[in-house]
C-alpha cells in the first residue's frame, strides 16, 4: 500500500504556501535585528525610489537585503542539489557535499584566511577549491570511460576525506587570531554575503534547466534499466545533472560556507508532503530550502545579539524536530 500524503492532491496549493512562507521569511529577515525596522519602512527602503534617508534605509538596503537574498539563494541551491543527488545516486543519505566539493571549497577558503588575504580572495579561494575538487572527482571517477554510482560515490568520499585531513591540519597550524573566522566559515557564516546576485542568477537558471528533465528523473528513479527501456538517455542525463548539482553546491558554499542539513533533509521533508514527482519536488525544495536558511540566519543574528551564531547550527536545530515529527506521522 502506498503511503497517504494528504497534500499530494493539491500540489499547487503547497507550492503557493511555500512561496508565501519564503516571502514571510525574507520580510522577517529585513525587519528583525538590533535596529527594529517596521514593514512600512522596509517597503519604502526597497521600493521608495531615490537614495533614501535615515539609518533604517541604509541598514535594509546595504546589510539585511543582500544577506537575506544570499541565504535564500544558497538554501535553494543546496536543496535543489540535494534533490538531484538523491535521485541520481538512488541513496536517501546523499546530500550536496557527498562528492567532496564542500571540502575543496573549505580548503581554498581557509587557505586564503591562513595567508591573511582579504574577503574577496577568500570567496575566490572557496570557488576555486570547489571547482578543483569537482574536476578531481569527475576525472578520477571516469575510469574506463563511464561513470558508475559506486565509483563516483567512492571517489567523492576519498576526496572529501583528504580535504578533511587538510582542513584539520590547517586548523591545528593556524594562529589563534584567525581561528574564529575559520570555524565560523566551516559552520556556515552569511555575515559577509554582500553579493547575492550571482547566486540568484545561478539558482533561477539552474532550476529552469533542471525542470524540463523532471519527467526523465521520475523514470530514472525507477532504475537505469527502466529508464533505458522507456527511451531516456540515462548516461547523458546523469552527467549533465551531476555537473549541474556540483555547480549549485560550489556556488552556495562559496557564498555562505558549509551549511549542513539543508540539502539532506529538505528534499525528504518536501517528498513526505508532495510525493516523488520531481517536477513538483524541485521548485518546492528550492522554496523550502531558501525559507529554512533565511529563517535560520535571522535567528542566528538575533537570538544572542549582538553576538552571532553559526547558521549551520540553527539549520540543524530547526530541521531535526520537524523532520522527526513528519517521519513519525508517515511511518512508511
Count of runs of 4 or more consecutive helical residues: 14
- Report the structural category: mainly alpha
The secondary-structure element order is HHHHHHHHHHHHHH
The total count of strands amounts to: 0
CATH evolutionary superfamily:
ABC transporter involved in vitamin B12 uptake, BtuC
Q: Which word captures the global form?
A: globular
**How would you state the average pLDDT, rounded?**
84
Give the uncertain stretches in residue-range form.
Answer: none
Count of folded domains = 1
**Major sheet characteristics:** none
CATH topology name, in short, is ABC transporter involved in vitamin B12 uptake, BtuC
Q: What are the SSEs and their pairings?
A:
Elements (H helix, E strand, L loop, with lengths): L10 H21 L7 H9 L7 H34 L12 H14 L4 H24 L6 H25 L2 H12 L9 H14 L3 H7 L3 H6 L4 H23 L5 H13 L3 H25 L8 H19 L3
What does this 3D model show about the protein?
There is one protein chain. The chain is an all-alpha fold and 332 residues long. It has a single domain (11-28, 67-325), classed as ABC transporter involved in vitamin B12 uptake, BtuC (Orthogonal Bundle), CATH 1.10.3470.10. It is built from 14 helices and no strands. It has helices at residues 11-31, 39-47, 55-88, 101-114, 119-142, 149-173, 176-187, 197-210, 214-220, 224-229, 234-256, 262-274, 278-302, 311-329. It is globular, with a radius of gyration of 20 Å. The chain starts with 10 loop residues before the first helix and ends with a helix. The relative contact order is 0.17.
